[in-house]
TrEMBL record:
The modification 4-aspartylphosphate is found at D676. Keywords: ATP-binding, Cell inner membrane, Cell membrane, Kinase, Membrane, Nucleotide-binding, Phosphoprotein, Transferase, Transmembrane, Transmembrane helix, Two-component regulatory system. This is histidine kinase. It comes from Shimia sagamensis. Pfam families: HATPase_c (PF02518), HisKA (PF00512), Hpt (PF01627), PAS (PF00989), Response_reg (PF00072). Residues 317-367 form the PAC domain.
Length: 856
């Protein structure tokens, strides 16, 4: 049974329970609000203190103003001036003037004026222009009158009229001084009172705000107290809940201190390790659960955590390791260890669980996967063997049918032969389909994106399937829907295979109808590339709605109750789906029973550029007169290859297995070796390695792999073994000719060496050139003989034509080819015209080849 253990820490369990509870969030908000209110109260108290100080200052200033006798002094100066003026007037008019009284009143007047002119308390009154001007006139009079007042009585009496005139303005000036001074003091008093009023209002406002803040703080404290009680209750409840969970859970938790002593060990841990908490409390955890060979690493991990080098035991998160039970058995666990603080003490908290069942399941899954992979390999090997075993007799059948088709046959024999060939090729396609499925399942689809003429591809597709459609009485055509975009970048071969499957299905299920292929460049994109949609629509029997979701599954064919024989394996659409998916596109179908179906394919296709026009090349030259070694274990295939090669004008040597092929290759040189792959005694790959590794005459001879296995990885193995090219079974005349052209006439090098230009090894080139010169001389001799043999000359023209193209004698090749054609058509006049040009052309060719050899 799989147990899971969680290590429980001694940290407050509230951390697990109320970290996100509403009461805790509310408590936090109340604390924040309380801090704000307390800060506001402190600020308001400072403002209140400052404002109160201003109030006291203003009151003190008013008190000082109130205690000042300036206003009384201003009133007294007017009174003293009036008394002095009255005494002066009485002395001037009285028959016996009282000069002592006059002098007394003047002294009082003079003293008042002097005090006001010089006392600092009255200086601010001088800012009033009226007061300053009046004081200056009065002070000037007083200073001027002092000598007169202090003069003897007789002199004073004589001066009384003058003093009376000079003092005429005193009352007015004294009154002006009094009024302007009193007005100034009144204004200052008003301002002082206004300041006091404003300050008192401000103080009242601050007091109100302070009261509100205090009330708010009190309310906040009430709510905070309530929230604290709720949080405490939640913490208590969470603690009980966590304790219950940890006690009853199958997950376990253990906690140790910095020395490794056990602090906590829950029930789940007891069940997993077989220890009782009461028995191991305070003991070292490493000695209890760590396997002996892992204790040192455990101690180092603990030390790293405690010293702050790392907060994890190993890596990050959970790690897998082995642990030991009380009975000494070792078992796998997943564990995560973290460090925490408990009352300033560092502790280690471990969370772990027993993964014995999971490890066992993983092991079983791996074993199951290995068995499945072995089964897949066995299936692939079986398919490869069966492919070879099926293809070998099919190759013999189809090859001999091809040879038989070149003989004289009656019309009925021709019909029988054609039917057998069709059936054989259908069977071959079924074998290829099975191999395609294997290739797709192995993920071995090679995508080759290249410039492609989509219009040309569709036209060739229609041309190739037109006869099959005509046999069903069905019209087959294609068209662009919307603006044409002929040149695109895609995998032509893969797209052609998809469309052949779709068109082939449409032909099979459509009689006397119409099949239309539409190509449309869509405005949407896939992975940033423009999308091309290709639709194959038919007017056939259609597909029922319940079968549409399964139409692209493997081995699904149309319902036989519809009266149609599908004639397929049910794999074609499955392969088409795999190819479209590999190309990054989508495939689908829409159908109505008895009305027809439309299969559509959407593929990302980058727009391609049309290649520049090139001068059309002439027909590919025939390659003849090669010495070929054929290594093949199957009698029929060996005879078929011999017959095909001999019909092409080559000499053939046969070997029945790889060992015999190696022996023959060591005896004399050959121009090419055709090597079967699957053979007894020694297979083709080993035979190729033996030939390449030897010092024999065929060490550098082209070796062509002949096999039914056409998977890309097989091609790679053939090339790695030293093979030059690949020829798939069944061997046909066109495929054989193409292989020879690619091998001997394909390369176009810039090197001036004739051997390099022909694409042949130097020794092979010399041997073929010598033979070519001999055959050319023999042809000229036959042309100039007294009694010319028409058939002999025609055959020699045919044989020499292909070799002339290989050695660069293009003018000679054209004349020989036209002579050969005229001979086959029985046009003797044209034949004679062409052969008449051969001798001078041959002499020029002979001279050029000889000169090239001398130049090397």
């Amino acid at each position: 049974m799989c147990h899971r253990v969680i290590l429980v820490s001694r940290l407050p369990t509230s951390a697990f329970a109320v970290g996100t509870s509403p009461s805790l969030r509310r408590s936090r908000r109340l604390r924040v609000l309380g801090v704000i209110l307390a800060t506001l109260i402190a600020v308001l108290l400072v403002f209140a203190f400052v404002t109160a100080s201003q109030v006291f200052t203003n009151l003190r200033n008013i008190k000082l103003l109130a205690s000042n006798d300036m206003e009384w002094s201003l009133a007294q100066i007017e009174l003293e001036t009036r008394d002095f003026a009255g005494a002066l007037e009485a002395a001037r008019l009285a028959p016996d003037p009282d000069l002592d009284r006059l002098r007394l009143r003047f002294d009082i007047f003079y003293s008042r004026i002097s005090t006001m002119a010089s006392a600092p308390a009255y200086l601010r009154l001088t800012v009033v222009p009226e007061f300053d001007a009046a004081l200056a006139r009065v002070n000037s009079f007083a200073n001027a009158a002092v000598p007169i007042i202090d003069s003897p009585d007789s002199a004073l009496l004589d001066s009384l009229p003058l003093l009376s005139v000079q003092s005429a303005h005193l009352r007015a000036d004294a009154r002006a001084m009094s009024l302007s001074g009193i007005a100034l003091y009144a204004a200052e008093n008003d301002k002082a009172r206004q300041r006091i009023t404003t300050t008192l209002y401000r103080l009242a406002t601050i007091a109100l705000l302070l009261i509100a803040a205090v009330v708010g703080l009190l309310v906040n404290l009430l709510f905070a107290n309530r929230s604290a009680r709720q949080t405490g209750a939640a913490l208590s409840q969470a603690y009980r809940r966590i304790s219950t969970i940890l006690t009853t859970s199958m997950d376990g938790v253990l906690v140790v201190d910095g020395t490794g002593a056990v602090l906590e060990f829950n029930k789940a841990s007891e069940a997993i390790f077989g220890y009782r908490y009461e028995d191991i409390r305070g003991k070292n955890i490493q000695e209890l659960i760590a396997p002996p060979d892992l204790r040192d690493s455990h101690y180092r991990a603990m030390e790293r955590i405690l010293t702050g080098q790392d907060r994890h035991a190993a890596g990050k998160g959970r790690v897998r390791m082995d642990a030991k039970r009380s009975d000494g058995s070792i078992f796998p666990i997943e564990i995560a260890i973290e460090m925490a603080e408990d009352n300033d003490e560092r502790i280690l908290i471990g969370f772990l669980h027993d993964i014995s069942d999971r490890v066992a399941a993983e092991k079983e899954l791996l074993e199951t996967r290995d068995r499945a992979l072995a089964g897949e390999r066995a299936k692939a090997e079986f398919l490869a063997v069966m492919s070879h075993e099926i293809r070998t007799p099919l190759n013999g059948i189809l090859g001999n049918l091809s040879l038989l088709n070149d003989t004289a046959l009656s019309p009925i024999q021709t019909r029988y032969l054609r039917n057998m060939e069709i059936s054989g090729r259908v069977l071959m396609r079924h074998v290829d389909t099975v191999l395609d499925i294997t290739r797709f399942e192995a993920g071995k689809l090679d995508v080759n994106i290249a410039r492609t003429d989509l219009s040309s591809l569709l036209q060739e597709l229609v041309d190739s399937q037109l006869s099959a459609a005509n046999r069903h009485g069905t019209t087959l055509n294609w068209r662009w829907e919307g603006p044409a975009r002929a040149w695109v970048r895609t995998d032509r071969a893969a797209l052609e295979q998809v469309l052949l499957n779709l068109v082939g299905n449409a032909i099979k299920f459509t009689d006397d109808g119409t099949i239309t292929i539409e190509a449309e460049a869509l405005s949407e994109t896939i992975n940033g590339l423009p999308v091309m949609e290709l639709r194959v629509s038919d007017t056939g029997i259609g597909i029922s709605e319940d079968r549409l979701p399964k139409v692209f599954d493997d081995f699904v064919t149309n319902d036989p109750t519809l009266g149609r024989v599908p004639g397929g394996t049910g794999l074609g659409l499955g392969i088409a789906r795999r190819i479209v998916t590999a190309l990054g596109g989508e495939i689908g179908v829409e159908s109505t029973p008895a009305q027809g179906s439309t299969f559509w394919v959407r593929l990302p296709m980058e727009e391609g550029r049309q290649p520049p026009a090139t001068k059309p090349s002439g027909p590919a030259p025939e390659i003849t007169h090669l010495h070929m070694l054929v290594v093949e274990d199957n009698d029929i295939n060996r005879e078929l290859a011999q017959e095909l090669l001999q019909r092409e004008g080559h000499w053939v040597t046969l070997a029945t297995d790889g060992e015999e092929g190696v022996r023959l290759a060591g005896e004399k040189p050959y121009d090419m070796i055709l090597m079967d792959i699957a053979m007894p005694v020694m297979d083709g790959l080993q035979a190729t390695k033996e030939i390449r590794g030897s010092s024999g005459p065929n060490r550098d001879t082209p070796i062509v792999a002949v096999s039914a296995n056409i998977l890309p990885e097989d091609r790679d193995r053939f090339l790695a073994a030293g093979m030059t090219a690949f020829l798939a079974k069944p061997i046909s005349r066109p495929s054989l000719q193409k292989m020879l052209q690619d091998t001997f006439a394909g390369p176009a090098a810039s090197n001036t060496s004739p051997a390099t230009r022909a694409g042949l090894p130097r020794d092979t080139y010399k041997r073929l050139q010598s033979r070519f010169l001999e055959e050319g001389d023999a042809l000229v001799a036959a042309l100039t003989a007294p009694y010319r043999d028409f058939q002999n000359v025609a055959k020699r023209c045919h044989d020499l034509s292909g070799a002339a193209a290989i050695f660069g004698a293009h003018a000679l090749h054209d004349v020989l080819a036209q002579a050969d054609t005229a001979a086959k058509q029985g046009n003797h006049r044209l034949f004679e015209e062409q052969v008449a040009q051969i001798p001078p052309l041959w002499r020029a060719t002979h001279t050029d080849l000889t000169a090239a050899d001398a130049a090397e």
